[in-house]
């Protein structure tokens, strides 16, 4: 597939990394030649210096005959114009980054399709939704929901007190068959596809598929204790912070701390049931005064990754069980994970995940790049005659880089075992390492 990426910011650069790893023909256009040189030194792609809204420059980037055009510059208007021009020039499919939720309304999406924009991605909206979802289940780092939450994929950090520590994956599976299934283990920064003889260890971050019925057993085996989240404190009145607050304020006791006085006044006018406090959330005295010790969850979404990490660390030391930090600096993600920050949100990775599924030849209805791992989670639809439907899983000889953890069939959910046979029309939850992508596609085509 020939893919043109307009914009060499962090989203564009991350997409270039993903697509180059999948052997696509990638062309990156940006007016910043230094950014282009840096990307070209790391990945096998073509760079074109120029404006993403110049017809001549877009033609030089081969936008007129590309399969996929992705506009991800920092400004919404530039992104929209770039995608519209590319479509009019002949791009087969266009995706534009936006900053306005109203564009995603069904009637408005159709208007943009008529203009030539096939898909739109709103990173802040994706990030806010991720934060809200993460509050639904305590004791987990990430939650991925399938089939209206009937099937769930949890990322869970296990400690030495977890009953599963010291046991093998096969041993734990045999104790609770069909309740949950471990897909992968992230250990010391390395992702291990979980096979039967792999042992659970202290500090492992495990990715496990289960159902609502199996969640209690899974969390118990992982040594997690349940509690209800009632009181939430949030640091930062960013666009993400405002979106999250509007969703949470009617269901939780919410306090929002914002260091800017003018922004605090604006937030107080916008929010009806949120206590907005003008102050620095890094101030320990202020946190104590505002009842940090009685807070069940702490969310840090300022524009500075370092502040968010530090604030969550401070909250954890004050006894807060659930912490969520927006970490946009890619270099800090592993640091935040190793420091024990609960849930890490990166809107660039979320946007890249949303876009990534459009590059598959197979039918992919959902994709997510895991924050603390180099693996991807996909929901793939099996077609009639696909190799994956030919025999039970135990006889499939699946590549070692791939693991299948769940099946959705006619609205019902299945935690698979060796006897499970995928059928045409099944939605299959798969975790794969980057080197397994091409092999995975062949199974489902």
TrEMBL record:
PROSITE patterns reported in the protein's UniProt record: RCK_C (PS51202), RCK_N (PS51201)
The keyword NAD belongs to this UniProt entry's keyword annotation: yes
Location of the RCK N-terminal domain: 1-121, 229-346
Pfam families in the record: TrkA_C, TrkA_N
Keyword terms, alphabetized: Ion transport, NAD, Potassium, Potassium transport, Transport
Domain of life: Bacteria
GO cellular component: plasma membrane
GO molecular function: potassium ion transmembrane transporter activity
InterPro entries in the cross-refs: K_uptake_TrkA, NAD(P)-bd_dom_sf, RCK_C, RCK_C_sf, RCK_N, Trk_Ktr_HKT_K-transport
Gene3D superfamilies the record matches: NAD(P)-binding Rossmann-like Domain, Regulator of K+ conductance, C-terminal domain
RCK C-terminal domain location: 141-224, 364-445
NCBIfam families: PRK09496.1-2, PRK09496.2-6, PRK09496.3-2
Record protein name field: Trk system potassium uptake protein TrkA
Organism expressing this protein natively: Xiashengella succiniciproducens
Lineage, top ranks: Bacteria, Pseudomonadati, Bacteroidota, Bacteroidia, Marinilabiliales
């Amino acid at each position: 597939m020939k893919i043109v990426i307009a914009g060499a910011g962090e989203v564009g650069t991350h997409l270039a990394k993903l697509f180059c790893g999948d052997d696509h023909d990638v062309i990156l256009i940006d007016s910043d030649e230094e950014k282009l040189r840096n990307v070209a030194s790391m990945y096998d792609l073509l760079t074109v210096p120029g404006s993403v809204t110049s017809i001549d420059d877009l033609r030089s980037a081969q936008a007129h005959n590309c399969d996929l055009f992705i506009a991800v510059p920092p400004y919404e208007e530039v992104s929209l114009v770039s995608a519209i021009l590319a479509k009019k020039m002949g791009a087969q499919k266009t995706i534009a980054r936006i900053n306005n939720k109203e564009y995603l309304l069904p009637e408005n999406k159709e208007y943009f399709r008529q203009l030539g924009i096939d898909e739109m991605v709103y990173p802040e909206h994706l990030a806010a939704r991720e934060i809200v979802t993460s509050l639904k289940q305590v004791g987990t780092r990430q939650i991925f929901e399938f089939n209206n939450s009937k099937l769930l994929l949890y990322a869970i950090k296990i400690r030495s007190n977890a009953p599963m520590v010291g046991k093998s994956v096969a041993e734990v599976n045999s104790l609770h068959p069909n309740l949950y299934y471990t897909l992968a283990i992230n250990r010391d920064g390395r992702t291990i596809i979980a096979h039967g003889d792999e042992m659970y260890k202290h500090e492992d971050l495990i990715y496990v598929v289960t159902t609502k019925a199996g969640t209690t057993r899974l969390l118990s085996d992982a040594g997690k204790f349940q509690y209800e989240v009632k009181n939430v404190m949030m640091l930062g009145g960013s666009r993400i912070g405002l979106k999250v607050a509007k969703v949470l304020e009617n269901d939780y006791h919410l306090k929002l701390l914002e260091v800017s006085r003018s922004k605090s006044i604006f937030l107080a006018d916008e929010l009806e049931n949120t206590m907005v406090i003008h102050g620095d959330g890094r101030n320990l005295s202020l946190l104590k005064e505002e009842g940090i010790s009685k807070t069940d969850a702490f969310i840090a979404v300022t524009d500075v990754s370092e502040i968010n990490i530090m604030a969550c660390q401070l909250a954890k030391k004050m006894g807060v069980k659930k912490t969520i930090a927006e970490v946009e600096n890619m270099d800090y993600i592993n640091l935040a994970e190793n420091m024990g920050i609960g849930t890490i949100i990166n809107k660039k990775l979320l946007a890249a995940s949303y876009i990534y599924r459009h590059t598959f030849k197979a039918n992919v209805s959902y994709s997510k790049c895991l924050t603390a791992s180099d693996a991807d989670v996909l929901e793939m639809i099996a077609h009639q005659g696909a190799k994956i439907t030919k025999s039970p899983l135990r006889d499939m000889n699946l590549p070692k880089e791939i693991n299948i953890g769940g099946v959705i069939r006619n609205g019902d959910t299945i935690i698979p075992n060796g006897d499970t046979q995928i059928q045409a029309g099944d939605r299959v939850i798969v975790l794969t390492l980057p080197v397994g992508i091409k092999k995975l596609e062949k199974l489902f085509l």
